[in-house]
Amino acid sequence: MSVYSHVLVAVDLSEDSPAVSRRGHDLAARCDAKLSFVHVVEFIPVDPAGEALLPPPVDLEGELVQGARHRLDALCDSLGLKSAPRRVEVGNIKVEILRVAVEEQADLLVLGSHGRHGLALLLGSTEKSLLHKAPCDVLAVRLN
Questions:
Q1: What is the rounded distance in angstroms from the CA atom of residue 112 to the CA atom of residue 105?
Q2: Could you tell me if residue 49 is inside a domain?
Q3: Alpha-carbon gap, residue 72 to 132, rounded angstroms
Q4: For a surface tag, which of 28, 57, 95, 142 has the fewest beta carbons within 10 Å of its beta carbon?
């Protein structure tokens, strides 16, 4: 087994994020590796036809990013990782996580994985896509 030098933990900021983060932290500590975090805000633009129903300029994307930054900071702080580098990106979840893994030269990507049954097994998932396209090893932490 190779020794990792940079562990990148991708979190969705759900209730499962602490478990995924702890697993990444444990592996990084065992390998004396850099540990960093990424969260992606997948912004879905408002239909221009519905724009008239919104109050004048609302920076919805900015508010989503700011909220995500606060939640990611709180997650890292709760795990005693106040100085761990973290990024909040906006865009397609799969594309952005892969881009950050390349930019950060991560050699291990840690993410959560939910068990899938029936039709969900046949449909593409974020985890499956990242597993096959990541430029590095991927650890999928089994979640309920």
A1: 20
A2: yes
A3: 26
A4: 57
